[in-house]
Amino acid sequence: MATAAAGALGLLWGWLWSERFWLPQNVSWADFEGQGDDYGYPRARHILSVFPLAAGVFSVRLLFERFIAKPCALHVGIQDSGPYQAQPNAILEKVFMSITKYPDEKRLEGLSKQLDWDVRKIQCWFRHRRNQDKPPTLTKFCESMWRFTFYLCIFCYGIRFLWSSPWFWDTRQCWHSYPYQPLTSGLYYYYIMELAFYWSLMFSQFTDIKRKDFLIMFVHHLATIGLITFSYINNMVRVGTLVLCLHDVSDFLLEAAKLANYAKYQRLCDTLFVIFSAVFVVTRLGIYPFWILNTTLFESWEMIGPYPSWWLFNSLLLVLQVLHVIWSYLIARIAFKALIRGKVSKDDRSDVESSSEEEDITTSTKGPCGRSSSNGANRVNGHMGGSYWAEE
Fold it and tell me: Which segments show compositional bias classed as Polar residues (predicted)?
């Protein structure tokens, strides 16, 4: 049994690292050995350094949110306080936990008779109880500020690195002499840091604020990690840097719009959202398919020809394009609603945690129903009051 298991494991391992899968014809792993510089060609073992680095990125994030993002949030007037706590009531709590969080009119009338409360008071209790499960604005601000800072820094590094790279100006250079393209230190650090960041997002997604597009984001992170990993192992890192930089340019704009929204700088928020929408559509529906997919599908076919991992790499890129189309549709819906209503009232990719539309326009109170909260987490405010911004 042990021998058979070892043999099966050996076959699986051989298939996993098969040269026929990963490399073009007449190329072997031995061709990448014996390089004289520190980095040589990309190797699969380099990926192992990502996991401790991802843990380090997550630790830096915790420190950043505690000592930088939180003081910034307090400085712009976001208070360190949660929503109003609903009055303890065993009967209503049982209904809330076991039956429904959104009682209909018939159930409200029955509870009104049972408790001798008016219906409006019971509705107010359920609203407060639902709001208890939502994270405060301070938490959302800190999360967004971390993402904004990373995306902005990595984009600046990426554009500075690519500006002096020949494949930034001529995408056919991505495939010139492929796969014998040595790995530079700048390219290595850029790739490994991006991969570590997305692994940290993959893990933290289960502890961060749960958003309505959780499943889409999970698929996005998987596709991104798969793309970065596969492109690194088979040395498609040149075109990979173009994909990374293209995505980072709109990501930090979205996080900036969210920060302005949480801080209630509504004109700034509206302006940033318009800029983000334009950049997103141009880069994801214009530059990405006509520049990136063009070189990975057609120029590479012409210069190096297809092979198994080439098909997988391009399949992941196409999955990413499908997600771009979905998000562009959601952004277009927001823009359309803005034209109809004269304001941006709600992000359809909202980070509201399983709540109804009611919470998006409901005042979070610190006292009796009707008085606004001190932190204004759900307050209707200006052009974008009550809106929640999702991670791209």
Answer: 362-378
Nearest-angstrom CA–CA distance, 33 and 17:
15
C-alpha torsion 31→41→229→311, nearest 10: -50
Contact 186, 241 (CB under 8 A): no
How do residues 263-289 score in pLDDT, each as one tens digit?
Answer: 999 889 888 988 999 999 999 999 999
Contact between residue 194 and residue 53 where contact means Cβ atoms under 8 Å apart: no
CA pair distance 22, 309, nearest whole angstrom? 5
Single-letter code of the amino acid located at 200: S
pLDDT tens-digit readout, 139-152:
889 999 999 999 99
Sequence-distant contacts of 31-37: CB under 8 A, at least 24 apart: 31/180, 35/182, 37/182
DSSP string, 64-83: HIIIIIHHHHHHTT--S--P
What pTM, to 2 d.p., does this model score?
A: 0.77
Residues 371 and 253 sit within 8 Å (Cβ to Cβ): no
Distances in Å between the Cα of 88 and the Cα atoms of 108, 111, 129 are 17, 15, 10
Residues 6+ apart with CB under 8 A from 80: 70, 74, 136, 138
Tell me which DSSP letter residue 49 carries: G
How many Å apart are CA 349 and CA 167, to the nearest integer? 34
